[in-house]
Write a structure and sequence with these properties.
By secondary structure, the chain is mainly α. The protein is built from 10 helices and no strands.
Length: 185
């Protein structure tokens, strides 16, 4: 079933929407959550929570891209679970390191406390649009999908050193870009 059909089922409050969304997007969403958490059971829990959240949010919302909508719900749930793990000193998956790397580009406190999140997202998207396709892919694979440096190198057919250096330079450029636009970094 295509996305518009699945969204229509959600809007009609037809429970088949959940089964259809699960069938179509489970693999995609689980890969996001597993990369962040490093644990399939926790990833499955995050995806199930994302399906429940989608049920509660559609309607009134009508997502333009169901994949992005479910991916974001799953990712946010996985990040929240990772934060909870870190608070409990259980440690996290590979996602913890990726999020720590990106933290150096944001304010010392929570970004949400200091900035309007929507404006920050727009600024980061404008920054990403200026990158080469290769650098943008590396950045997104690392900081959205939380792939390891090794996995990114394999996917893009390059060396781990090239990926590490590129990501480090891109983070520095992002920090400067945000600083010039008045963000406290």
């Amino acid at each position: 079933m295509d996305d518009s059909g699945i969204v229509w089922l959600f809007l009609a409050r037809d429970e088949r929407a959940i089964a259809e969304a699960q069938e179509k997007y489970e693999r995609y969403c689980l890969s996001i959550a597993v990369n962040i958490l490093g644990d399939r059971t926790d990833a499955e829990e995050c995806f199930n929570d994302a399906l429940l959240a989608a049920w509660q949010l559609i309607p009134p919302n009508c997502p333009y891209s169901l994949a992005t909508f479910l991916g974001r719900l799953t990712r946010n749930g996985a990040i929240n679970m990772l934060k909870m793990r870190c608070t409990q000193k259980r440690g996290g998956g590979a996602g913890e390191l990726a999020l720590e790397e990106l933290q150096e580009c944001s304010a010392a406190g929570s970004v949400e406390e200091e900035l309007d999140r929507s404006e920050l997202e727009k600024a980061i998207n404008r920054f990403l649009a200026r990158l080469t396709v290769s650098n943008r892919k590396m950045f997104i694979l690392r900081y959205w999908y939380c792939y390891s440096v090794r996995e990114i190198a394999l996917r893009l057919g390059t060396t781990e050193n090239t990926v590490s250096v590129t990501l480090n330079r891109t983070r520095k450029k992002l920090r400067e870009y945000l600083k010039k636009r008045g963000y406290n970094v």
